[in-house]
Amino acid sequence: MASLVQPAGPVGFDSITRQIERRLLRRGFQFNVMVVGQSGLGKTTLINTLFASHLVDTSGRKDPQSEFARTPEIKVVSHVIEENGVRLKMNIIDTPGYGDQVNNEKCWDPIVKYIKDQHSQYLRKELTAQRDRYLSDTRVHCVLFFIQPTGHGLRPIDITVLKKLTETANVVPVIAKSDSMTIPEREAFKKVLQKEFAYHNLHLYPNDAYEDYDEEDRQLNKEIKSIIPFAVVGSEKTVVVNGKEVRGRKNRWGLINVEDETHCEFSHLRNFLISTRLQDLIETTSHIHYESFRSKQLLALKENSSSAAQQGNAQAAAAAAANRAASK
């Protein structure tokens, strides 16, 4: 084991963090987020609210006269967002509302297949003899899972989809349109959901099984787990509160300020996803979910190669035996 040495004078390698920062700022960062949930829960609206930009057009109706539309297939929208010199390249993956049909058997398959396909594409790029210096990353770093604000817990189909998704990606659950519930109803609903998450052993993000977390990370995770699922409200419209414009909604009962923690937990979700855990979401996707997929694929490839080699050897031996028998 190498011993720790303190230089007697200035050397200069303590500037390496600034060197890395300059290089990363020049290249920019990639973040891919997927939204999953039943139609009409405000998935695209929440994404636009999170990044304070109109990034995705909703497929829902905007007035009573327009036709009702659903997202028919998985749709990917790409943007580059810049804030204080930091460029964030984003892929927003909008998925068809699952559970909308009469027969919902295997309705989650296209979503899970998309996540695995991105792992597969990345693996093929890695194994290419002459690969790019920087591989384009389309792997799904975060899945926002939208839960209906019913107050009655998860549906059987929700549990099935969550089990499938948590095996392949970082899943963060949110209670959609939480302003449709009173505060006591919301808190009671959250407790029911937390019990169901634990009962069904759903490995939601953040997961302390990841070994890279230090004590500070684990404490933060503990605080976050007490809040999950986040009860959120999304809105791209601005309303005036005490002479200040904020994003929110106005209805006959009053005004919803999405930034106000007493109204909803949108600010907790935004700080969690973007301000404190964005890089961790990227790293756990690479080091946990993708690595698990990669190892399974390479092991399967090795087993197939061994089987093919054994079969080839057996065929060669049989052919040699046949040749010897024919020459006698």
Automatic annotation (TrEMBL):
GO terms for molecular function: GTP binding. InterPro entries: G_SEPTIN_dom, P-loop_NTPase, Septin. PROSITE patterns: G_SEPTIN. Its main location: other. Keywords: Cell cycle, Cell division, GTP-binding, Nucleotide-binding. Pfam families: Septin (PF00735). GO terms for biological process: cell division; septin ring assembly; sporulation. Residues 27-300 form the Septin-type G domain. Belongs to the TRAFAC class TrmE-Era-EngA-EngB-Septin-like GTPase superfamily. Septin GTPase family. This is Cell division control protein 10. The lineage of its organism: Eukaryota, Fungi, Dikarya, Ascomycota, Saccharomycotina.
